[in-house]
């Protein structure tokens, strides 16, 4: 099967992510993390991309990247390739560092951007590495909100756009306040004076979080903020095949536990687990 072509959008913005082969660590220590950042800065300059946010975890990383020249694939190929060669040299390994091609999501508007930013910044909190996003050393959050020096490679002009203000410090303050909310994106929508229908936006975000990052590394706690009720996802009277697909989506896309699904559909948990595995194995791999 041929690979799905990567989009080449002039001026596009993407949420980009990848993780270690077999989910193994890609950052063994701070030296690895510093080298990844060094390569990122060099390739950002070479390809003239914009780095809006970033976060290094243990076995994966996240970036939000703007591409004025539509060259995301070229930039990512050099970033990942150079870092993989460095890791294999330093740790005396051979083979693939990453599990496959990087995943990407096209950011379509400010709500999508805020959703991706919240995900990136809250990832260490969801993983229980820290209790506050500013406590994670290898995230751009602290620099973004003004509590750490702003590196030259980081672009934060999106802040004044999202918060509709010309004052950068005010936009930074509002983002810090927003990130203290249990559901930052929902809180932003409630506070918005644009007249956007919150239910319509939540449907868009569920599609963004679910379909685009399906089978990815999205924390269950973040998916839960935007998911539909189980009764809506798995409706009574569904044909068996459609119900199996709905069970799979409820677990993978929306983050429901199989035990929760079993209670909803009134089946034994082992039966739901078999349905899930069977339906998941029948799907073709995602091209994202």
Which characteristics define this entry?
single chain, 288 residues, 4 strands, 4-stranded antiparallel beta sheet, 13 helices, 2 domains, disordered C terminus, Alpha-Beta Plaits, alpha+beta
General description of the model:
By secondary structure, the chain is of the alpha+beta class. It folds into two domains: 212 residues, Alpha-Beta Plaits; 55 residues. Strand 2 and strand 3 form a beta hairpin. The chain is globular. 31% of the residues are buried.
Termini separation: 14 Å
- The stretches of 5 or more residues where confidence is low (pLDDT under 50) are 204-222, 283-288
CATH class of the largest domain: Alpha Beta
Strand order of the largest sheet: 2-3-1-4
Can you summarize this structure?
With 288 residues, the protein is α+β, with helices and mostly antiparallel strands.
Task: Describe how the helices and strands are arranged.
Layout: E1 12-19, H1 30-47, E2 50-56, E3 60-67, H2 72-91, E4 103-106, H3 110-126, H4 141-144, H5 158-162, H6 168-178, H7 184-191, H8 198-212, H9 220-224, H10 230-233, H11 240-252, H12 258-265, H13 269-282
Antiparallel strand pairs: 1-3, 1-4, 2-3
Helix pairs in contact: 1-2, 11-13, 12-13
């Amino acid at each position: 099967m041929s690979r799905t072509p990567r989009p080449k959008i002039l001026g596009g913005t993407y949420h980009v992510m990848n993780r270690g082969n077999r989910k193994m660590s890609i950052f063994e220590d701070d030296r690895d993390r510093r080298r990844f950042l060094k390569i990122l800065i060099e390739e950002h300059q070479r390809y003239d991309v914009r780095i809006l946010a970033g976060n290094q975890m243990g076995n994966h990383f996240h970036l939000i990247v703007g591409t004025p020249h539509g060259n995301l694939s070229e930039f990512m190929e050099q970033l990942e390739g150079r870092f993989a060669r460095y890791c294999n040299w330093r740790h005396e390994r051979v083979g693939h560092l990453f599990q496959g091609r990087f995943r990407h999501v096209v950011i379509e508007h400010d709500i999508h951007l805020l959703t991706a930013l919240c995900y990136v910044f809250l990832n260490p909190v969801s993983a229980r590495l820290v209790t506050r996003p500013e406590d994670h050393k290898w995230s751009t959050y602290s620099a973004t909100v003004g509590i750490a020096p702003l590196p030259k490679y980081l672009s934060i002009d999106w802040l004044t756009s999202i918060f509709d203000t010309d004052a950068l410090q005010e936009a930074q303050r509002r983002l810090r306040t927003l990130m203290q909310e249990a559901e930052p994106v929902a809180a932003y929508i409630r506070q918005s004076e644009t007249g956007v229908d919150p239910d319509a936006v939540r449907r868009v975000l569920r599609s963004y979080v679910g379909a685009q990052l399906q089978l990815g590394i999205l924390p269950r706690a973040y998916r839960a903020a935007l998911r539909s009720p189980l009764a809506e996802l798995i409706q009574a009277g569904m044909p068996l095949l459609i119900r199996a697909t709905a069970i799979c989506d409820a677990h993978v896309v929306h983050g429901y536990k199989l035990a929760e699904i079993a209670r909803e559909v009134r089946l034994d948990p082992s039966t739901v687990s078999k349905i899930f595995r069977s339906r998941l194995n029948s799907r073709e791999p995602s091209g994202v």
